[in-house]
């Protein structure tokens, strides 16, 4: 006995009544079998009913591709009930990936020319939903004719279809230019709103259309002024705001037309001031209109007073109780801080207050804006606020906050002592969240401030005595104690309270660091080197230091073991040279904001040194032999040419200290991606102490007019290489060259294999999701050889 096919309503009730997923699948499989049989039999009377059931099954997520051809048959039918279900099925089951969608082009063309309004509406809806580029080119003349039809119903749908066509095929702009000017005189709300949208799409995609529609700016200004003063129609007013949707769309179009055009901007200045001052902000609809007005003022060539008014409006938004409004205000101010810095500075106290928001997205935006507002005149006050925020901010914001404070301090530090104090506070508060280069930057800063050596070593000693869990802080403190331990013991620093420290306390603290389970291998290396350096700076017996060094000669960590063995050999065989080897490290050139001045000074010094003869000492050749202590090779040793006898020359490779010789020639940067103003650049560094390691800094910049949000960069390398991705500095790249996103890649290439990168970028731009996957095969040879 054959079970009869169910009606659509009965099918819905039976599916909803299924208690388990297995029962639901059983009902759907049986009904799909009936639908297939009906399609094979070619029943024309009930075909639309069967397809309607199949569309419901498709909406539940089950396969329904076998109904595609039935959609074509129903569309070709002369009955309206068949066409209605057929067009609906085409919109749901067909898209550009299926060649079958091209088969309905003739049917749509015939229906558009029939003159029956409901059928024309169905055809236009289908074309605007799934029309491909080929269909748009073929049917553009028919849609153009319908733009001037007497029926508002058809004209509105034709305008929306034209918008889809322009998005698919921008070269069709010339087809739809003539009717738009006439459509602007319409009083029908839907037609006028659609026309504004169509003109906006034309201007965004065609420079010729942009020049053409700049002539209608006075007409657009008149329409918007009428909306603001007299209203359009009461049925389209929301919360007392006259047709906010139409106002927003007109403001967006004016923003495009007035951008980089003096005459158009002058025409709309008075109107924008009127909208900005007369719009009611007690309702969300009014805030939406006001926000679009602010964006328009900032994008066009508006008067200076009008721009200040726009920034003040955003400042009022920061005081709004709605978090969404505060978020868009912070985002907009972040975009404006580069062009209108002084106007945004007036709202700095309000921005700082937003740091205390419990909402993570608001506090992150407030942090980005606060960092952008830091300058040389307010750096002390802003750093106090940011440091207070760093102590209480959520863990996911600490890395961004710490990095931002360090960069701002390096750029705007009023004095070196203030700079050192600021970095120490960051390392003490959030040492585990700072960037990898924080340790090297602080050691270079302290090394270059000779007058602050005693102050720095005592501050760091006190911080280390209180907490040894912050690894970057411990590394800097160990380095500083090793370099300037004699100043610590002398106790002649007048800038802080006197502190009596004896040798045993210093040695005990470094031994505590070595024995702590929280210490990283790199931290232990710093502490061991500090102990070794103290052997030449302390006046007491070195037996305790020698004992500690000999213990780590059997350490499981190879790097630490090698250092201990070399230091122990230095004690046993070359004790007479130990003082010369362990002298204070020379200064290393910095890459920072003051690099230009330092480069000029070093260039002048290099020119003077070239003319002077370099003295040689017999001890230099003996020091070279020390470098081959562990080689185990007997026989003749070929000595390299005489080296600079300074202690920072050949001996740096032996001690492997944080300060390294001048780096080799820099590896050129590489631009690997560019799309719609979004760029991705790679910069390379190979640390001299570890040539197998390559540090790649990925910098994402955005020169477009829209923010890039939810930015994620992922990478892959060949299996012979090891890749470690550090956390990026953020996930939003502000428009117009705002603060870029940086991310560090650490690639270990011990075999010096040719380097290839595969990158995947995902982000949102102009309200669209973008995903790009590409390979980078043109990396500089210096990055891996």
TrEMBL record:
Residues 665-780 form the GAE domain. Gene3D superfamilies: 2.60.40.1230, Leucine-rich Repeat Variant (1.25.10.10). It comes from the Eukaryota. Keywords: Cytoplasmic vesicle, Golgi apparatus, Membrane, Protein transport, Transport. GO terms for biological process: Golgi to vacuole transport; intracellular protein transport. Belongs to the adaptor complexes large subunit family. This is AP-1 complex subunit gamma. It comes from Pan troglodytes (Chimpanzee).
């Amino acid at each position: 006995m054959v079970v009869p096919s169910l009606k659509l309503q009965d099918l819905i009730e039976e599916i909803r009544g299924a208690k388990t997923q297995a029962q639901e699948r059983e009902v759907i499989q049986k009904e799909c079998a009936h639908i297939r049989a009906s399609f094979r039999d070619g029943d024309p009377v009930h075909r639309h009913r069967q397809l309607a059931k199949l569309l419901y099954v498709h909406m539940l997520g089950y396969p329904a591709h076998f109904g595609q051809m039935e959609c074509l048959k129903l569309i070709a039918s002369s009955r309206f009930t068949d066409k209605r279900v057929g067009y609906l099925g085409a919109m749901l089951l067909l898209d550009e990936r299926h060649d079958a969608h091209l088969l309905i082009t003739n049917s749509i063309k015939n229906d558009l020319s029939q003159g029956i309004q409901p059928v024309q509406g169905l055809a236009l809806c289908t074309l605007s939903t799934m029309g491909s580029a080929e269909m748009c080119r073929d049917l553009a003349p028919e849609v153009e004719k319908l733009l001037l039809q007497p029926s508002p119903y058809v004209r509105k749908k034709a305008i929306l279809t034209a918008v889809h066509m322009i998005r698919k095929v921008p070269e069709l702009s010339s087809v739809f230019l003539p009717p738009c000017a006439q459509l602007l005189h319409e009083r029908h709300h839907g037609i006028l709103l659609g026309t504004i949208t169509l003109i906006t799409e034309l201007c965004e995609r065609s420079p010729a259309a942009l020049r053409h529609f700049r002539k209608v700016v006075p007409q657009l200004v008149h329409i918007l002024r009428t909306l603001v003063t007299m209203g359009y129609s009461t049925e389209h007013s929301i919360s007392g705001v006259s047709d906010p949707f139409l106002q927003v769309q007109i403001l967006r179009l004016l923003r495009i037309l007035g951008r980089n055009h003096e005459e158009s901007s002058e025409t709309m200045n008075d109107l924008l001031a009127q909208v900005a001052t007369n719009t009611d902000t007690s309702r969300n609809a009014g805030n939406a209109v006001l926000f679009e007005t602010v964006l328009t003022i900032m994008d066009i060539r508006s008067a200076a007073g009008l721009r200040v008014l726009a920034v003040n409006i955003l400042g009022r938004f920061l005081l709004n109780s709605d978090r969404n409004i505060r978020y868009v205000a912070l985002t907009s101010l972040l975009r404006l801080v580069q062009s209108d810095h002084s106007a945004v500075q007036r709202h700095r106290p309000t921005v700082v207050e937003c740091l205390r928001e419990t909402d993570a997205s608001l506090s992150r935006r407030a942090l980005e804006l606060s960092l952008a507002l830091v300058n040389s005149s307010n750096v002390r006050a802003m750093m106090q606020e940011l440091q207070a925020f760093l102590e209480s901010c959520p863990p996911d914001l600490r890395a961004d906050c710490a990095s931002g404070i360090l960069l701002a301090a390096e750029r705007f530090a009023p004095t070196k002592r203030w700079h050192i104090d600021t970095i120490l506070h960051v390392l003490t508060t959030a040492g585990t969240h700072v960037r990898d280069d924080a340790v090297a930057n602080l050691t270079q800063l302290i090394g270059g401030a000779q007058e602050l050596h005693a102050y720095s070593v005592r501050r760091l000693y006190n911080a280390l005595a209180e907490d040894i869990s912050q690894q970057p802080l411990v590394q800097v403190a160990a380095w500083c104690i090793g370099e300037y331990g004699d100043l610590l013991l002398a106790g002649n620093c007048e800038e802080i309270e006197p502190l009596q420290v004896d040798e045993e306390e210093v040695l005990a603290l470094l031994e505590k660091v070595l024995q702590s389970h929280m210490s990283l291998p790199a931290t232990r290396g710093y502490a061991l080197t500090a102990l070794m350096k103290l052997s030449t700076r302390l006046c007491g017996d070195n037996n305790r230091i020698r004992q500690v060094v000999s213990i780590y000669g059997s350490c499981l960590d190879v790097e630490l073991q090698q250092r201990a063995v070399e230091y122990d050999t230095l004690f046993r065989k070359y004790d007479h040279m130990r003082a010369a080897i362990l002298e204070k490290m020379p200064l290393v050139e910095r890459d920072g904001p003051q690099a230009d001045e330092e480069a000029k000074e070093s260039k002048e010094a290099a020119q003077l040194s070239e003319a002077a003869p370099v003295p040689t000492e017999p001890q230099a050749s003996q020091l070279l032999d020390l470098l081959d202590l562990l080689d185990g090779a007997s026989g003749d040793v070929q000595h390299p040419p005489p080296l600079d006898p300074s202690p920072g020359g050949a001996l740096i490779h032996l001690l492997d200290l944080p300060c390294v010789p001048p780096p080799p020639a820099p590896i050129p940067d590489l631009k690997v991606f560019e799309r719609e103003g979004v760029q991705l650049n790679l910069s390379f560094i190979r640390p001299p102490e570890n040539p197998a390691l390559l540090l790649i800094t990925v910098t994402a910049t955005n020169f477009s007019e829209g923010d890039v949000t939810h930015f994620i960069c992922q990478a892959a390398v060949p299996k012979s290489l090891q890749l470690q991705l550090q956390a990026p500095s953020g996930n939003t790249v502000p428009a117009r060259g705002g603060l870029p996103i940086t991310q560090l890649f650490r690639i270990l290439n011990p075999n010096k294999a040719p380097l290839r990168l595969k990158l995947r970028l995902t982000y949102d731009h102009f309200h669209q999701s973008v995903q790009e996957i590409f390979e980078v095969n043109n990396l500089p040879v210096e990055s891996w050889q």
